[in-house]
Every structure is written in structure tokens, then in C-alpha cells.
Amino acid sequence: MAKKFDGIIEAAHYKNGQIVTVRAYERRGASFSDRILIDRKDLVERIKSGKQFLTGSRREFLAGTFEEGKPVKVVSHDGKDFISTRDESDHDELELVPVF
Question: 56 and which of 8, 9, 11, 96 could share a cystine (Cβ 3.0–4.6 Å)?
């Protein structure tokens, strides 16, 4: 059985090409939280600690059911950490995630 994900990133806020905050749903046992804002530092720490976040969106009227997208990774390049859905990235990029 595949490992369940720990959170879904629904939207991202960028400043100068770098993710500042993401809007996400986080797993809380068998259910999910309401929308929460996670800042960059906390998101990087959570992913590095082994939590799995995916891009996606909540399916309307279906509570804890989500349209799952790509897994989100922390990619290190030249001593800097980037949040991306691609393995090789030199900047923050969450593909197909709307900006807020």
C-alpha cells in the first residue's frame, strides 16, 4: 500500500521568485485540517523531516478527498534550498499551483 501524504498544497505566495507562504491542508489523523498557511521555513523543515506534501486541490463537497498532483521536494543547489515539484531545479517552482 502506498504511503499516504501528510498535506496538500493548494496555492503559493511568491516574493522575488521565492515561495514565502503556501496555503495547504494538513493531515490530522484520519481527517484533514481546514486551510492553513505555512511559511517557507516551516514547510522546508516539515519536508526535510520526512513529511510528504503534494500539490493539488480539495474536491468540492467531498470533505477529505483531494485531486492529487505532484510530490513537493526540497532541492539543494549551490548551498541553497529550493521548494519544487521537479528533481533538478535552481528556483522555487510548484507546477500548476495557483498564486495567491
Answer: 8
Per the document, the length of the chain is: 100
Q: Which amino acid is at 49?
A: S
Domain boundaries, the chain: 7-84
Q: Which three cell numbers stand for residue 1?
A: 500500500
Closest of 82, 6, 88 to residue 44, by C-alpha: 82
Chain centroid, CA 4 distance in Å: 14
Which tens digits make up the pLDDT trace of 77-87? 889 999 999 99
Q: What is the pTM of this model?
A: 0.89
- Residue 55 CB neighbour total at 10 angstroms: 23
DSSP the chain: -PPPPSEEEEEEEEETTEEEEEEEEEEETTEE-S-EEEEHHHHHHHHHTT--EEEEEEPTT-TT-EEEEEEPEEEEETTEEEEESSSS-SS-B-TTPPB-
